[in-house]
Each structure stands twice: as structure tokens, then as C-alpha cells.
Please model this.
Amino acid sequence: MSAPQKREIVRRPRRGWLDLALGELWAYRDLLATLAWRNLTVRYKQSLLGIAWAIIKPVIQMVVFSVVFGRLANLPSDGYPYPIFLYAGLLPWTYFTTTITSASGSLLSGSNMIHKVYFPRMILPFSYLFTSLIDLLLAMLVLFGMMGWYRADMVFSWTILLFPLFLIPAVVFAGGVSLWLSAAAARYRDVLHLVPYLLQLGMFITPVVYAVNLLPERFRWMLQLNPMTGVVEGFRWSLLGKPVDGWGVIFAGFGLAFVFLASGMIYFRRVERTLADVL
Amino acid sequence: MSARNKPAIEAHALSKEYRLGETHRDWLADAAARLRGRAVQRSAPTILRALDELNFTVAEGEVFGIIGANGAGKSTLLKLLAGITDPTSGRAILRGRIASLLEVGTGFHPELTGRENVFLNGTILGMLQREIREEYERIVEFSGLEAFMDTPVKRYSSGMQVRLAFAVAAHLRPEILLIDEVLAVGDIEFQHKCLGAMKEVAGGGRTVLFVSHNMAAVSSLCHRALLLRQGRQVAIGPTDEVIQTYIQSTADTHAQDAAGFVALHERKPLLAHSPVIIRAARMVNEHGEAVTAVRMGETLRVDVRVEQLNQFPSAVVGVTVRSVFDQKIIHFNTAMAGGFGSARRGAKEIVRLEIPELPLMAGAYSLDLLVFEPGVRLIDRVDGALTCDVIEADWYGHGYRGEAREGLIAVRGECRIAVREEN
Model:
């Protein structure tokens, strides 16, 4: 099983800032998969309902928000039934928040592994991207059920097939933000205290519980530059057929998500050099 | 270019520095101090050279030991080679697939079952899922935990966890294996099994770097060894020679006064709020002169200078003799000798312990000193306080000189021809 040519590995002080070691990340994909699976298993171990919680949690949130924001506050939903309008946006947003919440502390909770074994450290925050993705796909089942229920009020089209495409910017953006926050939290624990407030703020600047047209037209671009706005709008467009204006700005927002990922990787690799020493 | 015949591991001026002291500035406190017009006081960071310009090579298939006292830099060296942390300067070249085993059971999750943890731990250690599936049956068999594989690991005893963890580790198939102190766990029987597995690994043509305090394991497994002292490379060569150097070097680390007392007081007290009781110690001959050696079968005399022992009326002073392999061979204390009787106790005393007819074969030993309340608590202890060379002598009276490598305990016996079997 041994290759004729042995791999030569050199350990020396690292310099430069563009060595992202992507090949190594790929070589450790088995570990990424195993950790994603571990996160999921551990989350639902010794609970009666188990993985059903992945469905129950967003449904409860949908009911509560529908009453508070839909009935009491009467927020606009572009003429769609409020619950389905809300749920289609709540799903990607919940994906984003659960990923960020668990990934930002992932280096701290995995510090034992970091001290004892070598592996590309990015695997730790990245593993949560895939754990939450499974939650998201399960919760989608409810959405399809609701679409059947409300079918009289809506027209569905071939665009449904396109919704997985909008997962890409969601994963990319969540990945970028996770890298920034987890690396920063390894150095400054303060970050962990800030994360819940950042996410709360994020929910206000993402049209989850309201429609974009709540804002005057000249301010909408600011909202749309937020990559998660694009994801939420993309979900509603592909699944519910809701028309979207401002695709240009939305795609610029998706570009921003990739900028976050790239810069996050560069910053993470910097922190990684001394990670085992500062943690 | 073939990698054949090139060493598996090369270190060139490999160094690692740590900054001690404040790692994080508390900028809020700094700002507050500045507002009040005070200068920000901050001591310059102390730099600790954990590893200082190491140069060595390890050949392919060699089993290489790393020894040294605590804090000598052994574990840091393994961490650098494993890639867990980067060197500050210099470099190391490793040829082949690496696995590091700095701890058994890394990443074990208590909520997961034994089976799930085998897969988790295996991938963390660098195995592929496919490889674990192939080895799974053998791993379970090695651990002897067939019946518990579907039980969460949190219900395992700590011994069972170690078994499972080592079973995974023993089935790693890297070309270079870095191991740190993993044999120090589990019961004796399992330790033997692990040692056997280690020998198999060592014999399998793999390159192994092995860090341990267990000199017996190092000497039986390793071809060559490296001795580190305070981050510097002190000796490198055949294992037994390096172990000898290590034992002699530990003796040189304590300062001696004119009466031959080795100072032992510069330590933290073992218990909070209790004094450092053992201040100094020496070995003496029958004339009361300080010595570092005793002849086989003669009396071992140890003087222990103690302070404030009278704060602990029921305390006992003891000495433990250890072999090169860190095994405790003899323990003797003042309670065994009937205590001090009604003699009044002072704040400063020299306690003498005597073991007549020391039953040890010739070789190097070390002495631990301890003060404890029997069955209650340990009050003070100095491991390796003194070294004691037992010198060969004609103790048997027939000209034969016994050595520690033949056996540690010296006994006199008889022999005769019991039965003469002729044709």
C-alpha cells in the first residue's frame, strides 16, 4: 500500500499569507465528513425526539413569528400567506445562525484535538457547515408540505429546481463568517459574547420577517448587498415564484460572500500558525 | 530521485521559543491607567527557548527514543514534528505518512458509542474511513470489548476507554509514528499487550519516535536515543549509553554544600500553606562522611534535613529506592523503625534512615524522599532527590559480582547437584 515515492514534509516557520493549503483540506475530507456526522449525532443523542428536533424547532419559530410579526405587527409579505413567506426565509436564516453559533466556538471546543493531533484546523468550523445543512434539508420537507397546502394561492414553476443553487452563497458566506469569528475567538474570547448580538442585528438587516419593499426604494440596495438577503430572496423566488427586482445588487452580494470566504481563509491561516500556543 | 536511503526524519537547527508572561494585553486596563495619567507598567516578555538548535537524523525503520526530565522539551519536539505547532527557526524534514499519538483517545466523545468512537478517533488520527472498516474487527478484538461496542463511552470505566483508544492506535498504519507517554496508562496486563503491539510496530519497518519516562520501555524498544536537557541536545547514540548519561546528569542538577548536603528546598510546597519540609539530604558512610555510592550488601544511610516537621506530629519520613527503570524497589520509613519515641521534636532536625545489608545488585539507583501521614495524606515529596550508585563487591564471597541488569534484588542462596542422572 505504500507509494514508491515517499511524501516529503517540511516543518519550518511559516511565512507569507497566500498559502491556503487547499490540497491538504481536500486530503482530509474524511475527517470533515466524520466530524460533521459527529456534530449531528451528538446534538440529538439521548433525546426522545432525536433528529425530529431539526423539524420541530423551525416550525415552532414559524408559528411564533407568524403570530407576532404576521398577525400583530402586520408586516408585509408581498401578498403571500405570511407563514409560508416567513418559513421560506426562516430556513436559510436558521441555517446561517446555527452554523455561526456553533462554528465560532469550534476551535475552543476542539482545543484538545488541536493540541494533540495535526489536521487542517479549518476542518473544525467547516464541519458545522455540513451539519446544519442536513438540518436545513430536513426542515425543507415541511416547506414542501406547506406548498401543497397553500397551492391554491400560488403558482409554482420550473424555478423550484433552482433552489439548491442558492445554498451555494449561503454555505460560502456562512463559511467565511465562521472562519473570521472562530479564528478571532481563539485569540479574543470576547468574540463569543458578541456573536448572539451580531446575529440578532443580522436578522434585522435580512428580510426574513418582512418583505424588501418595506424599505424606500433608494435604500433597498443596502439591504440587498447583504448576501443573506440574496439567499432569502432567492429561496422565495425559486420556491414560491416571488418576483425579485435588483438581481444585479443581489449577485454583487453573492460576490461579497466569496470575498468573505477568501479573506476569512487568509486570516484563519495567520491565526492557525500560533493556534496551539495561544489556545 | 528516490527517497530510499534518505533518513526518515532530519532536524536542522530546530528551535522553538515561547513568550512567557502576558499573552494578551488588557487594553481596557491600560487605557484606564493612561487616563489617570499613570504609565502603563508592563514587563518585557520573557522568552523561553523550549528547544535550542536540535540537529539529528533518524533512519528509515529506526525506533528512536527521546528522554529527559520534565520540561526538557520532549513533548514540544514531538509537537513540532507532528505539525501541531510551527518551529521558531530551523526546519525538520519528514519522509512518509505521519501519525502522531500524543494522547490515547483524542477526540473521544462520551455520548458516542464505542463503535462510533472507533471511527471518530481513527479519522482524527489520520486513517481513512475505508481503512477503519477494514481493520474494525481486529481493533475490537484487540480491545477485548466486543460486548460493549454499542454502549456510549461515558458508561465505560476509564480502563475500558484506554483499551479501546489504544486498540485504535495500535492499528494505525503510518510510515512514521510519533508516540508520547502512552504506555503509562491501563493495568499491567494491558500495558504488556501495548508494549507487545509497540514492538510489532517497531519491527514492522516503520520509523518510530518514542517519548517516555519509562526507561525499561525505552531501552527495550529503541535502537538509539536522544537526551534533552532544558531544550538542548545533551547526548545522542545507542540507547543504553544515553540512559546512563541521563541518570548521571540528574545527579548533577542539585547544588551541594560543604557537608555534602544536596539542597532540595527551592521548590513549591506540595500542599498550600504548608512549609517545604524536606530542605536537604545526603548519603553517608559509617564515619558520617558524605558519599554518593554504597557497596553491595552494606548499610545505606540517608540524612534528611527537615524543617517544621513538628507541625505534623504523626508525620513519617521515608525513602523510596527506584531503579533506572523507575520501578519502586524498596521503601523504608521512620514508622517501620518504630518512630522517634518520646524524643522532643524541634523545628529543624536531621533525620537519619538506615537500611542495613542493602539487598541490591550493583548499578545506579535513585532515591525519592517523602514526608507523609500514613493513610491520611502526603505532605512533602522530592522525587529523585539523591542518586545512589551501588558498587559491586564480593558480597557472595565466591568472587562473583552481581549487576543490576541481571536482576535488581541481591539474595544469597545455595546450590548442589540434586540428582545425578547417569546414562
User: Anything to note?
Assistant: Residues 123-149 of chain A form the longest helix (27 residues). Chain A touches chain B at residues 1-2, 5-14, 30-31, 33-35, 38, 41-42, 45-46, 112-119, 187-188, 273-278 (CB under 8 Å). Chain A has 13 helices and one strand.
